[in-house]
Amino acid sequence: QVQLVESGGGLVQPGESLTLSCAASGSALNIFTMRWYHQAPGKQREFVASITSRGGTDYAGSVKGRFTVSRDDAKNTVYLQMNSLKPEDTAVYFCNALSIISGKDYWGQGTQVTVSS
């Protein structure tokens, strides 16, 4: 069982930056592909970024070049650095851990990001 806790969300103006963190407990993070999703009001949850256990990354087209996902397995934490934020980035951001061994995945509770002037 893995517990995930996101933090770092908040209210920022367009063009500003935020860094989200996802702290994991209950299992070592190095057997998981870690993913970030977001869900805007009235919309489905959407993929944002992922990082494999070997450090390979992937991004949604809407955030490529602006967001960077990273991981620190020693701290059991994954990060999402978000630059040049836009109002359309406003959403609840969720962390997801996908086990490369069992295929089971786990979700955090989410953290709200609001981009508004």
Fold and architecture overview:
This protein is an all-beta fold. The protein has no helices and 11 strands. Strands 2, 4, 5, 6, 9, 10 and 11 form a 7-stranded mixed β-sheet that branches. Strands 1-3-8-7 form a 4-stranded antiparallel β-sheet, with no helix packed on it. β9 and β10 form a beta hairpin. The chain is globular, with a radius of gyration of 13 Å. The model has no long low-confidence stretch (mean pLDDT 96).
Produce the secondary structure layout.
Blueprint lengths: L2 E5 L2 E3 L5 E8 L6 E8 L6 E6 L5 E3 L7 E6 L4 E6 L8 E9 L5 E3 L3 E5 L2
Parallel strand pairs: 2-11
Antiparallel strand pairs: 1-3, 3-8, 4-5, 4-9, 5-6, 7-8, 9-10, 9-11
What are the segments in which pLDDT stays under 50 over at least 5 consecutive residues? Answer: none
Shape: globular
Quote the average pLDDT: 96
In DSSP terms, counting alpha (H) and pi (I) runs of 4 or more, how many helices? 0
Q: What key phrases describe this protein's structure?
A:
11 strands; 117 residues; mainly beta; 7-stranded mixed beta sheet
Quick take:
The protein is mainly beta. It has strands at 3-7, 10-12, 18-25, 32-39, 46-51, 57-59, 67-72, 77-82, 91-99, 105-107, 111-115. Helix content is 0%, strand content 53%.
